[in-house]
Design a protein that fits this description.
Length: 148
């Protein structure tokens, strides 16, 4: 997916539709990308843009949790709407079975057998699952397989 082109196209669609939520979210995302490119001094690769989108989505999820604790349903709704816009730009995530298969493969490749081997498993695992799986969930699966 060419994120820059997609974001520009969706920005135009949001403007024409007068969709304030999409407009705000896409502009924020474009701003994050531009700021990161300025910091870095070169254009971002697709993987780096995906990471920025994931960070923005994670921030929305955290905000939703905090607003729910504070009993602020209107803010929860706003953050949730922005999260739905961001999800369009996230890569397809692995399902539970795929994550378990990947963990089994990495455990076999690294020869890990105990919880002491956790460190040598997580590096290659996170590299193999980059952007396609939740790191916390992968860690839970590894712990479960190494402790049994």
């Amino acid at each position: 997916m060419d994120y820059r082109k997609e974001l520009n196209d969706q920005l135009k669609v949001a403007m024409k539709a007068k969709d304030a939520t999409s407009l705000k979210t896409i502009r924020d995302l474009k701003s994050r990308i531009q700021m990161r490119e300025i910091e870095k001094g070169e254009a971002l690769k697709e993987a780096e843009i995906v990471k920025l989108v994931q960070t923005a989505a994670k921030q929305r999820k955290e905000a939703i949790a905090l607003y729910e604790q504070g009993d602020r349903p209107e803010l929860v709704a706003a953050e949730n709407a922005e999260l739905q816009v961001l999800k369009k730009y996230l890569p397809q995530m692995m399902d539970e079975t795929a994550m378990e298969d990947l963990v089994k493969r990495i455990l076999k490749e690294t020869g890990a057998v105990s919880m002491g081997d956790m460190g040598k498993v997580m590096g290659p695992l996170m590299k193999a699952a980059a952007g396609k799986a939740d790191g916390k969930r992968l860690q839970e699966i590894v712990k479960g397989m190494l402790s049994s």
